[in-house]
Amino acid sequence: MALTAGTRVGAYEIVAAIGAGGMGEVYRATDTKLNRPVAFKVLPASLASDRERVARLRREAEVLAALNDPHIAQIYGLEDSTEVTALVLELVEGPTLADRLAQGPMSVAEALPIAKQIAEALEAAHERGIVHRDLKPANIKVRPDGTVKVLDFGLAKVVEDEAVRPNSSQTATATMEGTQDGVILGTVAYMSPEQARGQLVDKRADVWAFGCVLFEMLSGRMAFSGQTISDTIAAVLEREPVWDRLPAATPKGIRRLLRRCLEKDPKQRLRDIGDARIELDEALAGSAKDDIDGQEPVGITRRAAITTLVGAALGTAATGAFAISRYRGAVPRSLTQFAFAVPEGSKALYPATSSSLQTTVGWGSSRGFRPLCGNWP
């Protein structure tokens, strides 16, 4: 069924085409019952009679119905008739992340809040046992108010037994630009090594794709790319990202997070996207452990403070030990005796047999001056 402006499908009236790809065509439409704009997603005409593709579209509806998160586009309904099978979705205004990246890399301050919201969306899906499997900038929208929405769960899979394996209808070919007919469970530049090999995948495939997206946001370049599909897959399987492309202002914690997300061995990769969200929270809060590379931290760091205190304590102990040793080993100096006359008419404090009072005093070694007899006035 051809959809043009003014076409009515049930309660929905088509307004204009928004975009098209191998997984579906999306139109802006009006819900005439509720008087609200919606996104109307249908299969391309060439696949409208493909039972497997129709079944996949219905599975996408079920997946979205199981999710309720502010960073995932909502589903309003499934229009299923003899004429067309369509998803009725939340219409998300604003450019895609791919549109924004076409203008160049993002600053750390711009990228991290968006990355955090993407992580929150994936975390909500993973908690329900759902793996997206096609996360990429073109499937992420940023609304004018800064809210992020993750779109297109057409390749999403409810994980059973902790992993899913692609079937033959999904592994015929791969494309460079987007998810099209026969893509290998995602887009080659963002698919994990296990996806590229057609192996079992789980939520760690989304962690890899998240790392690819975050790297591209900060650097303005894909983490893995090539002139051909084969070159790109080879880069995914064999090469490391060019880490020097990250801006100097990238916090150390975010650099560490990217390396953990982009571990080729899934056993060594970050296991839970929730951990990435926590790392992003700490970076946004300006945690001391995320000091910017190339800059001296302001004030005294915790390590420096501890070092100073330990040094002071050791110095005090050494000084005390030295003083004690000096005191114990000191040899008393000789006593000095002298006599002085008491003036006539003065009241003597010491008994004396003559006008001259013989008084003996001593100079103690390390304790200072100390009288050796009598009550010193």
Structure description:
The chain has 377 residues and is α+β, with helices and mostly antiparallel strands. It folds into three domains: 1-91, 2-Layer Sandwich (Phosphorylase Kinase, domain 1), CATH 3.30.200.20; 94-298, Transferase(Phosphotransferase), domain 1 (Orthogonal Bundle); 336-371, no CATH class. It is 32% helix and 18% strand. It has helices spanning 51-65, 97-101, 108-127, 193-196, 203-219, 229-238, 252-261, 273-284, 302-328; strands spanning 8-9, 12-21, 24-31, 36-42, 75-80, 85-90, 130-131, 140-142, 148-150, 157-158, 336-341, 356-363, 369-371. Strands 1-2-3-4-6-5 form a six-stranded antiparallel beta sheet. Strands 11-12-13 form a three-stranded antiparallel beta sheet, with no helix packed on it. A hairpin with a 5-residue loop joins strand 12 (356-363) and strand 13. Helix 3 (108-127) packs antiparallel against helix 5. The chain starts with 7 loop residues before the first strand and ends in a 6-residue tail after the last strand.
